[in-house]
Amino acid sequence: MSLLLVILDGSPEARPPVLEQSVGNSLTRFMEGERLVSRMFAGLKSSLVLGVIVLALALGTARAEWASNRLVWVREPGAMVMAVHSVQPWLAVGRQGGVDEAVRIYRLEADGQRAASPWVTLSAPPVPAAVKPQTVVDLVFHPREPLLYVRWGWSSESLADPKTRAASTNLGCLAIYPLTETGLGRAELFARGAMFAAGLKPGRMAIEADARRLYLSNLTLGSGIGLGLGSLPLLTNGWPRLSDGEWLPVTINVDVLRGPPNGWGFLACSNALIFGTQFGLATWDAGNRLAPLGVLPIQELVNQIWAGGVAEIPAAYGLEVDRSLAIGVAQSDGFLSGRPQTLTVEGAAFCAPPAVVSRPPMYVAAPSPAKVDLLSINALGNFDGAVESRPATGGKIWDVKYSARADRLYVLQEVTP
């Protein structure tokens, strides 16, 4: 711009000094600018390094804070299984060893802790005098509605006795309990007949996030056929979608893959169910009766797999029953993809399905009878190799559940009354 002004200036005296001064000033400004930019980049580099260090320290602090403040021990006499509602501040515990208060439902306080006393208690369904009472097999909440589904069952001995088997199989095995602000509404009992009376544990259930299907395990499909899984259709309000007055499941025989029992836990997605087998993780497309089962084999396996996960994280997880092998596999809407990750956890003997902590910092909670291992995962659900252990004091651990609403991991522990 200065050069252009010199050319247009008709004064001969002005031309050389102005040009020389202009070029000199430009060179001076350029060099000063270069030094300024160098200082800026040096400062930016230092800031980035400092930022990474601060972020690492903050992440470490966040993990330590999570583990210390957000793990809640739920200690119950006769503890067996547990469920946490996704929307309501409710926690349910299934107990063994008695008819009264076989299920206790607690309110959760604002800080995520369980209330001191049960809000609602449920007794086992009434049975004829000659029939032994049922015990809780599993329970799950509807993801939106105020409904609790409870799978009741008999012991194998009761079903083997000819005097009581007929009466037992004619009683319902699946109860739906509606809950209100004041307590319990009118309960309904479903799933009658020999198909539902397997007498086997574990017998985990699962429900999809969009609540179109409720999945059951340990279904007796007929003499010589074996045990299967079942998908029960639900109405939008969570109640059964009946067919000719009956709640009939779509079933599939998985006896060759799992063997009895087959209720070791599930990940229910909108179009498929992921479950564990003695060979690896498997997928059942329950919406397509003609679709084959897909199995992703894992060579290291010796026992069955406790399976679990959450649909919003693109991974499914397995824990080898009574052993220390943890498994992670990429999944998309219930269909497995990619090579599995495996992680051996020192001192573990896994005793229940995993629970996924889906809010950062993220973990897979892997329960053993005497401790809970927190397996760190990234945003894609992959193990990053870090493991934190939380020992139990007192009785045996039976179950773990995570509440994203409260950002708390609940650990169910059996204690002496």
- Ends distance: 91 Å
User: What is the 3D shape?
Assistant: globular
In CATH terms, the superfamily of the largest domain is YVTN repeat-like/Quinoprotein amine dehydrogenase
Strand tally, please? 28
Layout of SSEs?
Layout: H1 2-8, H2 15-69, E1 71-77, E2 79-84, E3 90-95, E4 103-107, E5 120-122, E6 135-141, E7 147-153, H3 156-160, H4 162-169, E8 174-180, E9 183-184, E10 188-190, E11 206-207, E12 213-220, E13 227-233, E14 250-253, H5 255-258, E15 266-268, E16 273-276, E17 280-284, E18 294-297, E19 305-308, E20 315-320, E21 325-332, E22 335-344, E23 355-357, E24 363-368, E25 371-377, E26 383-391, E27 397-403, E28 408-415
Parallel strand pairs: 1-28
Antiparallel strand pairs: 2-3, 3-4, 4-5, 6-7, 7-8, 8-9, 8-10, 11-12, 12-13, 13-14, 15-16, 16-17, 17-18, 19-20, 20-21, 21-22, 23-24, 24-25, 25-26, 27-28
Helix pairs in contact: 1-2
Description of the molecule:
This protein has 417 residues and is α+β, with helices and mostly antiparallel strands. The protein is 19% helix and 38% strand. It contains 5 helices and 28 strands. It has helices at residues 2-8, 15-69, 156-160, 162-169, 255-258; strands at residues 71-77, 79-84, 90-95, 103-107, 120-122, 135-141, 147-153, 174-180, 183-184, 188-190, 206-207, 213-220, 227-233, 250-253, 266-268, 273-276, 280-284, 294-297, 305-308, 315-320, 325-332, 335-344, 355-357, 363-368, 371-377, 383-391, 397-403, 408-415. Strands 6, 7, 8, 9 and 10 form a 5-stranded antiparallel β-sheet that branches. It has a 4-stranded antiparallel β-sheet with strand order 2-3-4-5, with no helix packed on it. It is globular.
